[in-house]
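debug: dumping io for the single-chain case to check the tokenizer round-trip. Nothing else runs in this session.
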Amino acid sequence: MMWIDKNTKELNQISKTTFVKTSLSSILSKLSPLMLLVKMILFIIVIKLNTTERNLHIIYINIG
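debug: decoded output
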């Protein structure tokens, strides 16, 4: 009885850890394109504000 109980506890722990990992990765995969979009919008705004190549280069490094 003890042996089965121990295995069940370990399985529960493993399933909880897996659930946390999958939910974290799904959240990150949803956030990743959003962050890319935000960076692109910022970059476009920067291009419109600063037309000189030197400023663009410096700001591109700061964003990237």
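debug: round-trip ok. The mean pLDDT is 73.
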